[in-house]
Design a protein that fits this description.
With 122 residues, the protein is an alpha+beta fold. It has a single domain, classed as Adenoviral Proteinase, Chain A (Adenoviral Proteinase, Chain). The chain has three helices and five strands, in the order E-E-E-E-H-E-H-H. The strands form two sheets. Strands 3-4-5 form a three-stranded mixed beta sheet, with helices on both faces. The protein has a two-stranded antiparallel ribbon with strand order 1-2. A hairpin with a 4-residue loop joins strand 3 and strand 4. The longest helix is centred in the middle third of the chain and has 21 residues. The protein starts with a strand and ends with a helix. InterPro entries: Papain-like_cys_pep_sf, Peptidase_C48_C. One of its GO terms (molecular function) is cysteine-type peptidase activity. Keywords: Hydrolase, Protease.
Length: 122
């Protein structure tokens, strides 16, 4: 997910990346955010809006599926918080690459430096 942090300011295009995972096996949504937690109202509002739209779309297109997600709760997974306001994209990419629903991958500042090199090279 990408969330604009100043949507009403045409000059500020700053934003924040975080991940939402749909866990069909355990029947819930998982939110992984490297800056915020479930206590952040801006995050929870953004997440709930997206997930409610996803549930409605799922119901519209998969109403006859044996898997229904309308009752799935949202779980905010505890993650290591980043030390600045610029590395959220790297954290989110690592969550997507390595998240398996159990252990949260720890991303250090040194690892972010290496990831910058890898992504720049690629």
């Amino acid at each position: 997910m990408f969330q604009e942090l100043a949507p009403h300011d045409p000059h500020d295009k700053c934003g924040h990346h975080y991940a939402i995972c749909l866990d069909l096996k355990n029947q819930h949504f998982e939110v992984l955010d490297s800056m915020r937690s479930a206590a952040d109202a801006v995050l929870t509002t953004h997440v709930e809006c997206f997930i409610n739209n996803l549930k409605e779309t799922w119901n519209r297109h998969y109403e006859h599926s044996k898997v229904q997600i309308i009752h799935f709760p949202i779980e905010y997974v505890e993650t290591m918080k980043q030390g600045n306001k610029t590395d959220c994209g790297f954290h989110m990419l690592e969550y997507l690459a390595k998240w398996e629903g159990r252990l949260v991958h720890v991303l250090t500042t040194a690892m972010v430096v290496e990831l910058r090199k890898i992504y720049t090279w690629n």
